[in-house]
Amino acid sequence: MKLIVAVVQDQDVNKLLAGLSEKGLGATKLASTGGFLRQGNTTMLIGVEQNQVDRVVEMIKETCCSRKQLVTPMAAVSQSINSYIPNPIEVSVGGATVFVLDVEGFAKV
Ligand code: 2BA
């Protein structure tokens, strides 16, 4: 068995959950925060059999869009606030960041 951990954007979650449940696959949705943007995103835990991994990763790929976002980097601690000119930069977020982990044990007790 494998555990798919997928960090997705909040906007894509409902569609992804609907697709997974349509295929009879279980998933858990966790509220999370991106370390760089410090904005909310969603981490999905999806336990599947080995032979379902590719199908689920493909589903994530089809469902999760890439979006551009403008961020204003924070001033460095050493930088004087008077000399800090905020310059927004554009980052591209998503589709999804996906990890596939081996599961040593699985039980519903
Ligand atoms: P965030 O950490 O908020 O990152 C949002 C987007 O900002 C990233 O999109 C990337 O395009 C950009 N970014 C991240 N770190 C950067 C940096 N040091 N310099 C410039 N740009 C940077 P994604 O790569 O699509 O990542 C989306 C979210 O997936 C991340 O949100 C984070 O929550 C998660 N993630 C990405 N890589 C990860 C990893 N190696 N381990 C755990 N979570 C990860």
Q: Helix/strand-derived class?
A: alpha+beta
Poorly predicted runs = none
- Given the C-alpha coordinates, what overall shape results? elongated
**Helix and strand sequence:** EHEEHEEE
Subunit arrangement of the protein: single chain
Could you give the count of β-strands?
6
Ligand names: ligand 2BA
Characterize the main sheet: 4 strands, antiparallel
Instruction: Give the percentage of residues in beta strands.
Output: 35-45%
Strand order of the largest sheet: 2-3-1-6
Radius of gyration: 18 Å
Number of helices: 2
Helix fraction, binned, reads: 10-25%
> What is the mean pLDDT?
92
What is the CA-CA span between the terminal residues? 17 Å
Which helices and strands, and how do they pair?
Blueprint (H helix, E strand, L loop, with lengths): L1 E7 L1 H13 L5 E6 L6 E9 L4 H11 L3 E5 L17 E5 L2 E7 L7
Antiparallel strand pairs: 1-3, 1-6, 2-3, 4-5
Ligand 2BA binds next to strand 5.
Fold and architecture overview:
The protein has a 4-stranded antiparallel sheet with strand order 2-3-1-6. The protein contains 2 helices and 6 strands. A hairpin with a 6-residue loop joins strand 2 (28-33) and strand 3 (40-48). The chain is of the alpha+beta class. The two termini are 17 Å apart. Helix 1 crosses helix 2 (53-63). It has helices at 10-22, 53-63; strands at residues 2-8, 28-33, 40-48, 67-71, 89-93, 96-102. Bound molecules: ligand 2BA. Residues 7, 34-37, 41, 91-94, 97 line the site of ligand 2BA.
